[in-house]
Design brief:
Length: 792
């Protein structure tokens, strides 16, 4: 599926190359006059996939959540908010969190299995180990890849700590097969797939030779979960009985998707009698001695399995329990009143009440996903979501009432409340049976009256994701008037941020955002209330890809005509007077409109039949007649001085960018009160930062001896006494990679972030033209929009 992560990863694929380092080891040298910055999230409240939540069984209120690309979080129960644990991650390493484990007997110990992909170009994963609940970490390199943002990230937990010996961990890999440069010649994983164990709290790992269940053929998700049987051994001796769920085509077709070891992991055997043609998702042992397992899969129109592993694509699934004492299986799948074929993934077993558990559907797209609860081991179930599907609660009976006041943009137009949510992964509070949380593709919901569902009463849910910001930032805009910030985001389109401290009330309409991707924004420099935006369709069924606002983003009018593009997206620019729009969609050559998008003509001229597909277009910061376009792949810069009527090659000697590694980002110099500079354009390149004062015809490298790499550049309000906008740069200066500021047009730089605020690097930078020192950044890790403020 196309998501924010798909587009954002275009910028970071080649950046994930070095080892994760602790915050102390990454402490960057800063000059003594470096300004002091405070960093905050522009509040959206989640916005991306929270694919796992766990509770510590011995410390009340201690929960951890993982996200596919935005890091891990610890719950602060006193303040009802989540604390990000991975903002210290340096720019060389963006790590998705594939699995989280805690030592059941030591609440301070936390283990994170990190890595984004198992593709052939991806680096190996990292094991992050904390002895202080995530306040600091030690990092240990692994010899295998980890797929925190791969299909199957909804499963788990693949990483577990032996409850009888906290120094022992087990982890199960994916079932990946990597492709070489020749797609017809697959390259096997060289034996790295399988089950791994550590006997020194995650510092070193060895492969479990006795575990042969994975086939390395790319089917299924590999090891879905690890589950230790209850302790029967002496303290500090390894737990002898361990279960592992295996998700491969072979395991599903043979019915051997559960394996057991009775000798502390030395040897393994399949557990016979399980369901056929099902792929396990999650498994947990209950206090009643039953191992509960959720399953999901898919079949084609002829009923043949196609092996979907989630979080998308499932159209079949089940819930089973395995009686570990009597070695018997029972199908306990809840009955779906809508008879809509879907999978099951989310699972949480109440450790204090035998037979009590909840499960969640996956890909139950109509009317919506839901949660089921049982108190008798699956003999009967209560549909916790009930008839609230479609957001219309019934007048009586069991249903869920959801309060989205902390993120009101989640409420669909015309509805009283949002849907129950998709792709749910759930946790029960081991200290309070009425308290539960579940993460979705967009947020976390929490309740304190879950047990009321068993009495036929409604349950009440509220947004429980304060502190979690999990959107991938594609583009940012800070105009000289109106709202200080507009964003283009993955999965949730973007927002007009009328406040930085409260979540937006609504998403822009016309076109309605949905789960589209906001790829570009621009405003008319001489008429800043005029703003244009374009979207990529993502998973949405968009019929419109672009729109214009004449009132600072309050209302929007769709482009009546879409110039023949199928997917939209790309970049867009509007002239200083707001009358001309230049659009470079992702799939067709750039076009020009002088009537609000009612009709379009190709951007051509000067011997050019048209500008190349995929160029980055922008408008000049002060001259309303000038547009630019950068072909980053070939290092060619174009300009138009007649509002897009004709285009010319201005320069063809800029450094070329490799789109699979890094995009060049041209930015015109904008500002207020005389700070805007006609004809001035800066652009980042893999070889440094470049500046033109001649409408792009000539370029000079900015501080070439110091600035050796540049990711993104933006402009904000000038410092007192200066008439040039403040320049903000994400890049490498004097050998240090970070976020920098210059108040003298790039002559000197100071670093403004620190070792605790690196966010895996910064992909997008925008300064605020009205507030000196304020800068908006979009991290490579999907941590939402972060803004920094300083009085210095």
């Amino acid at each position: 599926m196309i998501t924010s992560k798909t587009i954002a990863r275009r910028l970071l694929c080649g950046a994930i190359a070095a080892l994760l380092l602790s915050p102390a080891a990454q402490l960057a040298a800063q000059s003594t006059d470096a300004p002091s910055y405070h960093w905050h999230n522009a509040r959206i409240v989640a916005g991306g996939y929270v694919d796992g939540i766990i509770a510590h069984p011995r410390q009340q209120g201690l929960f951890y959540a993982r996200t596919d690309v935005g890091g891990a979080y610890r719950y602060d129960s006193k303040n009802n908010k989540w604390i990000a644990l991975n903002d210290w991650v340096p720019s060389a390493n963006q790590g998705g969190i594939e699995s989280i484990a805690v030592d059941p007997n030591n609440p301070n110990m936390l283990f994170l299995m990190t890595g984004l992909y198992v593709k052939s170009w991806a680096p190996n994963g990292e094991m992050l180990v904390s002895s202080d609940q995530g306040k600091s970490f030690k990092s240990y390199p692994l010899s295998f890849r980890v797929g925190g943002n791969e299909d199957g990230r909804n499963a788990g937990e693949r990483l577990q700590v032996d409850p009888n010996d906290g120094s022992i961990l087990f982890y199960g890999t994916s079932n990946a097969v990597y492709s070489s440069s020749n797609p017809n010649t697959p390259v096997q994983v060289s034996g790295k797939n399988g089950l791994w164990t550590s006997k020194d709290k995650g510092a070193t790992w060895t492969q479990v030779n006795g575990f042969k269940a994975l086939t390395s053929d790319g089917t299924g998700l590999g090891v879905a979960f690890v589950a230790f049987a209850p302790n029967r051994e002496a303290k500090d001796s390894p737990t002898r009985t361990i279960y592992v769920g295996v998700s491969t085509r072979n395991a599903a077709s043979s019915g051997a998707s559960l394996y057991v070891s009775n000798d502390a992991g030395a040897t393994w055997n399949p557990v016979k009698g399980g369901p056929s043609n099902e792929l396990p998702q999650r498994g947990q042992l209950g206090p009643d001695g039953n191992l509960y397992i959720t399953y999901g899969n898919s079949v084609d129109q002829n009923g043949h399995p196609t092996y979907a592993i989630g979080p998308g694509g499932m159209n079949m699934g089940a819930v089973w329990k395995y009686d570990t004492a009597h070695h018997t299986w029972t199908d306990i799948t809840p009955t779906d009143p809508f008879k809509y074929a879907s999978g099951f993934s989310g699972l949480s077993v109440d450790p204090s009440h035998p037979g009590t558990l909840v499960v969640m559907t996956m890909d139950h797209w109509w009317p919506d996903d839901t949660m089921y609860r049982t108190t008798n081991g699956g003999k009967s179930w209560v549909d916790v979501g009930g008839a609230t599907w479609n957001g219309v609660p019934p007048t009586s009976g069991t249903y869920a009432i959801r309060d989205a006041s902390l993120a009101p943009w989640m409420i669909p137009a015309g509805k009283k409340q949002p849907a129950f949510g998709n792709w749910g992964e759930v946790v029960l509070d081991p200290f309070n049976p009425g308290h539960a949380m579940y993460g979705t593709g967009g947020t976390i919901w929490t309740t304190y009256d879950l047990t009321d569902a068993g009495a036929g009463k409604p349950t009440h849910w509220s947004i429980g994701a304060i502190g979690i910001e999990e959107t991938a930032v594609i583009t940012l805009l800070s105009p000289t008037a109106g709202p200080h910030l507009l964003s283009g985001l993955g999965d949730v389109c973007g927002f007009v941020h009328t406040s930085l401290t409260t979540a937006p009330q609504t998403q822009p309409d016309n076109p309605t955002c949905g789960d589209s991707i906001g790829t570009s924004l621009d405003y008319a420099k001489n008429s800043p209330s005029t703003i244009v935006r374009v979207l990529h369709q993502g998973n949405s069924k968009l019929t419109s890809f672009g729109s214009i606002s004449r009132d600072g983003g309050t209302t929007w009018t769709e482009f009546p005509n879409h110039a023949g593009t199928t997917y939209g997206g790309g970049t867009v620019a509007v002239s200083g007077d707001g009358k001309t729009i230049v659009w470079a969609p992702s799939d067709i050559a750039p076009v020009v409109s002088n009537n609000g998008g009612a009709s379009w003509t190709k951007a051509s001229g000067g011997g050019l039949p048209s500008l190349p597909v995929g160029v980055h277009v922008l408008s000049d910061g002060a001259n309303p007649n000038v547009f630019y376009a950068l072909d980053e792949v070939h290092g060619v810069f174009y300009n138009s001085t007649d509002k897009g009527v004709s285009w010319h090659v201005a320069n063809s000697s800029l450094p070329k960018a490799d789109p699979s590694y890094q995009s060049s980002q041209p930015t015109a110099v904008t500002g207020i009160a005389g700070e805007a500079k006609a004809g001035e354009v800066w652009t980042t390149t893999p070889k440094g930062l470049f500046r033109s004062t001649t409408y792009g015809t000539t370029w000079n490298q900015v501080d070439a001896s110091s600035v050796t790499a540049a990711n993104s550049v933006g402009f904000g309000k000038a410092a007192k006494g200066s008439h040039y906008p403040t320049v903000y740069l994400s890049g490498t200066v004097n050998g240090v990679t970070g976020l920098f500021r210059s108040t003298n047009a790039g002559a000197t730089w100071v670093q403004i972030n620190d070792s605790l605020h690196q966010w895996g690097g910064v992909a997008v930078v925008a300064g605020d033209p009205r507030v000196f020192g304020r800068v908006y950044v979009g991290p490579y890790e999907a941590r939402g929009v972060i803004y920094g403020t300083s009085k210095d």
